[in-house]
Specification:
mainly alpha; Ebp2; nucleus; ribosome biogenesis; EBP2 protein
């Protein structure tokens, strides 16, 4: 009991209001409160009304305490350069960012995989349709051939249908072969680096070069001119057979 009385005495100390900051008030009334105005209107079983009454009571306490703090010249707003320490360290926030980034990348990879699967599925579907179409055409042609062999039909239209696309392909290939001029790659390189001129056969004689004898010199051509200066030829060592003959003569 002594401890309880001591605690009660501590609570009853007459301290300044700035040290206590206790405000007793009811809910906000007037234009600021529209849903709940008194305690009697609050249904304790209704979570929304109960939480709203707490919010309005806190709002009323703030509206009552702010003017008193302003009268005591106590600032109630943080300065613009106020530095607040984060509840979590920078390392923890970095881990969170990396985790969020990895989740986003995983979602992007999953989305790309879905798109690839859809494209493969569509491509497979188109390929299956083409194969089915070819099989159907082949089956129809075989049936027509059997009917013709049995004498049930005297029409050879299926042969004309087979030859028509083949001729079209031949014409297309011939038109491609007849195509003249350099290809697109060659034209691009000519435009970028310039066309250096004809290389093949550049050293061939022409009629003009054959008849042009202005650069001909008879002395040089027939080796009658002065000999070119240079080092004298050194004495070379005779070959093996010559050395053997020289030895046999010396004996």
């Amino acid at each position: 009991q002594g401890g309880l009385r001591q605690s009660l005495a501590d609570l009853r100390q007459q301290l300044a209001w700035v040290e206590r900051l206790d405000v007793t008030s009811g809910p906000v009334t007037g234009s600021l409160s529209q849903s709940v105005s008194s305690k009697d209107d609050v249904d304790p079983e209704n979570d929304f009304q109960r939480e709203m009454s707490f919010y309005q009571q806190a709002q009323a306490a703030v509206l009552e305490a702010l003017p008193r703090l302003q009268q005591l010249h106590i600032p109630t707003r943080r300065p613009d350069d106020y530095f607040a320490e984060m509840a979590k360290s920078d390392q923890q926030m970095q881990k969170i960012r990396q985790k969020l980034k990895s989740k986003q990348e995983a979602m992007e990879r999953s989305e790309r995989a879905k798109q690839l699967r859809a494209m493969r599925k569509y491509g497979k579907k188109v390929q299956t349709e083409i194969l089915q179409k070819r099989q159907k055409e082949k089956k129809n042609m075989l049936n027509a051939v059997k009917k013709y062999q049995k004498g049930l039909s005297d029409k050879l239209d299926f042969l004309d249908e087979e030859q028509a696309p083949a001729q079209g392909n031949k014409k297309g290939s011939a038109s491609q072969r007849i195509k003249k001029g350099p290809n697109a790659k060659r034209r691009y390189k000519n435009q970028k680096f310039g066309f250096g001129g004809k290389k093949k056969g550049s050293k061939w004689n022409t009629k003009e070069s054959f008849n042009d004898v202005s650069g001909f010199r008879s002395k040089v051509a027939h080796s009658k001119g002065p000999a070119k200066g240079g080092k004298k030829a050194l004495n070379k060592r005779p070959g093996k057979r010559a050395r053997q003959k020289m030895k046999s003569r010396a004996r």
